[in-house]
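Note on ligand handling. Small-molecule inputs were canonicalized before submission; formal charges were left as drawn, and no protonation-state enumeration was performed. Where a ligand contained multiple stereocentres, the stereochemistry in the source SMILES was retained. For zinc ion, this procedure yielded the string shown in the input block below.
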Amino acid sequence: MSDPAQEKTLTELAPASYECSACGYIYEPAKGDSSADIAPDTPFEDLPEDWRCPVCRVRKSQFRNIGARGAPSGFQDNLSYGFGVNQMTPGQKNLLIFGSLALALLFFLSLYGLH
Ligand SMILES: [Zn+2]
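Structure output:
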């Protein structure tokens, strides 16, 4: 089992990607930049100062931090969707529970009827 707290820490430690504000190119540290002999897993901060956007050749200063990619972004939002149970009123939840029980009872009765 994976520990959610551990995953959060790993996400926070993941190097950030940077987007070129001129052309939209995204430097992903995990990929590096093969056109400039930048090895994979090179953080943007460690790129040489004369490194330029491989697409439009602007300087590093033209890039902006867009955060770690591949992180489970929106995970918190998804939690609230779930199966919709969290948005139900207590009455709806009771209806769901008793409805399930009634279905289970019907299921058992039908099985019993088959014998
Ligand atoms: Zn660019």
